[in-house]
Amino acid sequence: MNHNFFSLNVQGKVDLKALSTATRPKPSGPSRGMLDAREEMIVSLVAGVRGVRPGADENFFDAGMHSLQALRPALCATAAIGRDVGLPLVLAHPTVRTERPPT
Description:
By secondary structure, the chain is an all-alpha fold. The chain has a domain at 33-103: Orthogonal Bundle (Non-ribosomal Peptide Synthetase Peptidyl Carrier Protein, Chain A). Helices cover 39% and strands 0% of the residues. The protein is built from four helices and no strands. It has helices at residues 16-20, 37-50, 67-81, 87-92. Helix 2 (37-50) packs across helix 3. InterPro entries: ACP-like_sf, PP-bd_ACP. It comes from Streptomyces adustus. Residues 42-97 form the Carrier domain.
């Protein structure tokens, strides 16, 4: 596999910061408006892990987050709302605006 098209850092490794600035295609379809309080909390928790605010319809895992990173927002959400938000819930609902799970 040819990796010459990736930006490299001073150590000769792939520059991850340069990758995060790459433009991603915007989701097609109508905008669903402003984020509610629950969605804003999810955005801030994921941004704390990734360093970048996710788009409302952006899949966290397609954008580079992995399951170990997903554990941190799940634990923080559990502490914030006092309800178990385990990793399986994050894996099943990997976007800010994924359908809400049953209560």
